[in-house]
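Q: For a teaching handout, I want to show students what a protein-ligand complex looks like in token form. Below are the inputs, and the small molecule is adenosine-5'-diphosphate. Please produce the holo structure.
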Amino acid sequence: MASLKLKHIYKVYGGGVRAVNDFNLDIKDKSFVVLVGPSGCGKSTTLRMVAGLETITSGQLYIDNTLVNDVESKNRDIAMVFQSYALYPHMTVYQNMGFSLKLRHVKSAIIKEKVLKAAEVLEISDLLDRKPKELSGGQRQRVALGRAIVREPNVFLLDEPLSNLDAKLRVQMRTEITKLHEKLQTTFIYVTHDQTEAMTMGDTIVVMNKGYIQQADAPVTLFEDPVNLFVATFLGSPQMNIIESELVVKGNKIGAKLEGLENNTIWFRDETAKQIRNSGIDLEKKYLFGVRPDHIRIGQTGVDAHVEAVEQLGDETIIYTNIEGHKGHVIMKSPLVTHVRVNDDIKLDIDMQRVYLFDKDSEHSLIGMPSYNKLPCKVEDGKIILGTSEIPFDEEYGSHLLSGAYADNRFLAIKPEHIEFEETESNRSIKVKVDFIEERTNYNIIFAQIDGVIPYLIFKANKDRKIKVGDELVVYLPLDHIAIYDENDDSYFCREVVFPNVADATVKTKDGKTTISINRGQKLVYEDLGVADGKYQFVLKQDKCEPVITRKVAKTIPEEVLTKVNNGEFLSVSCYDEEPQHKMNTIFVKIKGFEEYVTLNIKNQFSVYKMSSFKMKVPADGFELIPVAEETEEIKEDPETAKPEQ
Ligand code: ADP
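A: Here is the structure, written as tokens, with adenosine-5'-diphosphate included.
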């Protein structure tokens, strides 16, 4: 038995390399999870943090609901199999497999029983007396697996275990590892950069890029509903065709003009057109149209194409074509042996149920399942207003909102998979009406309308829910999965609790200069602020400060970004955490004299985390001064009341 929970895990290596960012994943007992992505995307780092071979910079790792961040590797009940088999050359297979048990002083009769059993599972019983050098690569890998099996761990971690094997053996070992997972009935976490390996082995695939999870789901879902361009093009072979397009609108219909050419226009289905229209995207912009080679046929009608090359692969044919205006090939895959020849002119008939459209900047998918729903909303004290509906929130939720969240033109963001059907204490109900439904292999996608809101609320529903078009439903939005964004995709919902940024201060004006002395801390000096001398509460606004960037802080930053440290308008701060947003960066800093940590939202020019301690420019409109009633009365009364009654 082992389930794992990774919550907001970050890894920053010495030197500031951010290898893993905000990694969140629930791993069910007995599942087979594959982490996949290009080299350097943080897969191994994540696995090594689970193994306890690498410290976790921030976030929580639970194994079976126990927090294990500080539990030593050897006490985590896991076994790890590496790419290099790391067998002891002077020991036999039997000794290699039994060695870890021997170290733990397990009785030799028990070691024997376990090694023999593992050898049987792996079909290496006849190799037990051999030394590693007398084994093939595949056999060595099996011994490495055997060494992990004998320990009967709750979690198996495998880091590219097949990459030293030749192609044929790799395919064979893939099946063997899948079978082994079934036999052992334990949790497997497997790392690979090979998308085919990932798609054929895992029940959950986690696609990573640049330290971030891009999408985590069943293989078929990743294939059918990639949330962004990266996932769409990383999975699938040959890779998805991506063609730049303009959109054309004719009445209710929307089409894609591939490479902007009139004769390359294809029309979306009515449902797709509705989704595009309601999403509120700019119809004048250029987008990236996507279609997999698997979903193009040769038709009587379609986009004109010229055949450049034909690959007959026995059971299928890959045809490389050119279309007018497009630099690369448009590739199609036919399950049949076709009679198409090089230089033929054909028509590409595209299955419009299976096409994609991506934003060129954000690279988010705009058709089908989105990475998240983004609905225009208003945020007021204690509630989010969505059309005619209200979503009340509690103090706990409010403590994670930056002050900029409270505005009329905000967006509520929630992932489709977080929308629930049952009420709980921490979710909020909302009424919706189902406009249309798209079927997928594992679920249906529901496109529903909230009264007074134009974009659809899009969510997944199990097929056995029997939701129909026109149904009026109540669904639930869990508060801890609702983020508040602005039009720039900057979030005002923080993982960390947001502090009120308050310090006690004394104000004194002399010779045309106002000095604000922060309690036990630093001084800020401004041209006369016209404020009476006295005691104040100094409230630092969250979104007015700028970090002072000097040569000392950032050697490679261009001259124009450097700030001149002048007069007295700055505070020294030290940053202990940051949440990178889109154009903004929320930082949590320590400033002497403030009651608690200070939360600031600053322009995201570069990672502040690395700077750690720096100066912060505080403009004259960057704070409020709230007068504090003089405590003199109390002091005056003190001696009186202190007098013993006679
Ligand atoms: P992957 O397994 O996906 O190839 P890794 O997790 O090995 O990626 O690496 C993620 C990033 O962290 C890379 O930029 C890599 O250079 C960096 N990195 C890995 N290990 C260390 C280390 N010990 N010290 C500093 N940087 C590291």
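A: Two things your students might notice: The chain has a mean pLDDT of 90. The CA atoms of residues 527 and 578 lie 32 Å apart.
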